Amino acid sequence: MPTLAQTATVVRSKNAGPLTLSFDLMFPDRAGFDRAAGSDALKAARIAALYGVPEAQVAVIPYPVANAIKIALPRRIVAGSPGDRDVYGAQQHAPLLGLEL
Hints:
Layout: H1 4-7, E1 10-15, E2 20-26, H2 30-37, H3 44-51, E3 59-63, E4 68-74, H4 94-97
Antiparallel strand pairs: 1-2, 2-4, 3-4
C-alpha cells in the first residue's frame, strides 16, 4: 500500500493561530486525492489517536477542486509557551508521512 509521503506532492504543517495546528495535503491528480480522501488513515479518529487529541476536535476537510485535504486540530501546548518545541508548528506533519493509504 502506498504511504501518504509517496502519494502526496505536499504534506506540511503550520500554526493556525496559537492554539491550532493546520496540515495541508496536496495531491498531483484526482486519483491520489480520491485514494487519500477515502482512506481510513485520514479519518478524524485516526488523526486524533496519532496526535493524542479528542476526535471531536479534529477537522478533516477535503477540497476536491484543488486535489487537497486540510486537517485542523488543537495544539497540546500553546505556541510559544514553555515546553513548546515548535513555535511555528512547521515540524508536526512527520507522523502523517508513513500512513498507508
